[in-house]
## 1
Amino acid sequence: GVSQLGKYTLEDLKQHKSPDDAWTAIQGKVYNMTPYLKFHPGGVKDLMRIAGRDGTKLFMLTHSWVNAEFMLDACFVGFLVQGP
Ligand code: HEM
């Protein structure tokens, strides 16, 4: 259940910025993008621009019509929270 999911800060996200361990946050939810990388229609390089950080702004600028929450449901690892 949701209670077992992690809570991550922006500092935590920074530890996951390589293709084999690529996390991002979109609208408050943290995703492990690694399994999705090779499926991104815009390519790996563009997607990696939001690895290790909050990708909300860039994602919304490029394709706000894409339902990332639905698409990345299986990649959902937890919630973005404020740092201590
Ligand atoms: C296209 C998903 C992040 C750049 C697409 C499409 C999807 C998608 C489903 C096809 C959209 C359509 O044809 O209407 C995602 C998801 C992302 C993400 C789930 C985040 C987890 C990004 C980022 C960038 C980007 C950060 C840019 C820095 C592009 C580009 C295309 C595209 C340029 C157009 C590719 C083409 O049609 O040739 N993305 N995207 N995407 N995406 Fe992303």
Note: Helices lie at 10-13, 44-48, 56-63, 68-71.
## 2
Amino acid sequence: MIIAIDGPAASGKGTLARRIAAAYGLPHLDSGLLYRAVAWSLIARGVALEDAGQAEAAARGLDAAALGDPALRSEAAGAGASVVSAYPPVRAALLDFQRQFAATPPGAVIDGRDIGTVICPQAEVKIFVTASPEERARRRTRELLGRGEAVDEAAILADIRARDERDMNRSAAPLKPAADAALLDTTALDADAAFAAAAAIVDARALKTV
Ligand code: CDP
Ligand code: CDP
């Protein structure tokens, strides 16, 4: 079974994907980490994010062992990821890894922006998670504060809006719900309530495919 969970920054899709994966016994892939790793490899070497050729080379040479680097969780890596992820050759270079992850039994839970639309259009379950930009900025602020990082909520809201804008308006695999995705607005839901709603969607869809 393949479960695709897409949505904008800080909508809670990663937290949801981890919990769904644990509950259904499936491996989990956070596809955003791949784009973050490409961006971080440029940032760490002082290469401009606008250098599409270097970004493509980094995507082709990506080593799965690099995905555990805590630096990938920074806002700088996230913002950089949304720049390099707009380059079609970068997306093409990361496609096979994601498809193979999904195709390996017993299946997978993958979260990102284009999992239900491009990477796994055949996924049995597709959930598009949303929340208002203000609520997403509050969540990211709380998360960063919890990690002891200095934060400015207004700057985080501005970054989230800029990222939404770039992700929705790019021509390569723009952020949008698949036609057959279930929409899950978590603005008023905590992580437990979001998980319960998502599990009900998974159960209903999985039943239909037996
Ligand atoms: O956790 P958050 O939503 O903040 O970020 P992420 O999922 O790690 O994604 C970082 C950036 O990578 C996004 O803003 C997208 O531009 C890009 N991305 C993408 O293009 N396609 C994906 N499947 C996943 C991420
Ligand atoms: O992966 P994405 O960027 O969409 O979001 P996340 O990293 O899973 O979640 C961002 C923060 O929101 C985390 O600290 C979660 O604990 C919190 N949160 C959530 O995931 N779901 C809710 N319904 C409410 C809060």
Note: The two ends are 11 Å apart (CA to CA).
